[in-house]
Amino acid sequence: QVQLVESGGGLVQPGGSLRLSCAASGFIVSMNAMGWYRQAPGKERELVATIISGGSTNYADPVKGRFSISRDNAKNTATLEMRSLKPEDTAVYYCNAKGVTYYRGATMYTRDYWGRGTQVTVST
User: Fold this and answer.
1) Contact between residue 2 and residue 97 where contact means Cβ atoms under 8 Å apart
2) What is the full DSSP assignment across the chain?
3) Phi and psi of 115, rounded to 5°?
4) CA of 25: how far to CAs of 1, 34, 35, 98, 101, in Å?
5) Which residue, among 30, 26, 25, 28, has the nearest Cα to 5 in the 3D structure?
6) What is the pLDDT along the chain (124 residues), one digit of tens a residue?
């Protein structure tokens, strides 16, 4: 099986910065895309940023110019650098991996995975 583990959340003041990391473990052959989503209380989960294996990125409008996503294909990790944080960025942030191809025994599988989430709180 494959697991995604997020780290780096916490409490930060408005205007501050945080770095979130996501590490995928397991007998992974490849991952098409990695990304970050977030869910604030009472709201639906929404896209924050994604990055495909070739390096192309996509950002939600509210975070453009403030957040930056990167990945290390060799280590199966993704990082979200968040700057100029605002109270409205407060949410649980989830790591997502799409098209994860992995081995279980001698059989190859492909599916999507989610991490358990990490809380980001932007407040004075």
Assistant:
1) yes
2) --EEEEE--EEE-TT--EEEEEEEESSEEEEEEEEEEEE-TTS--EEEEEEETT--EEE-GGGTTTEEEEEETTTTEEEEEE-S--GGG-EEEEEEEEEEEEEETTEEEEEEEE---EEEEE--
3) -80, 180
4) 8, 13, 16, 14, 12
5) 25
6) 899 999 999 999 999 999 999 999 998 988 999 999 999 999 999 999 999 988 999 999 999 999 999 999 999 999 999 999 999 999 999 999 999 999 988 999 999 999 999 999 999 9
What are phi and psi for residue 63, nearest 5 degrees?
Answer: -110, -5
Partners of residue 50 on adjacent β-strands: 35, 58
**CA 121, CA 40: separation in Å to the nearest integer?**
10
> How far does Cα 22 stand from its chain's mean position?
6
CA distance 106 to 15: 49
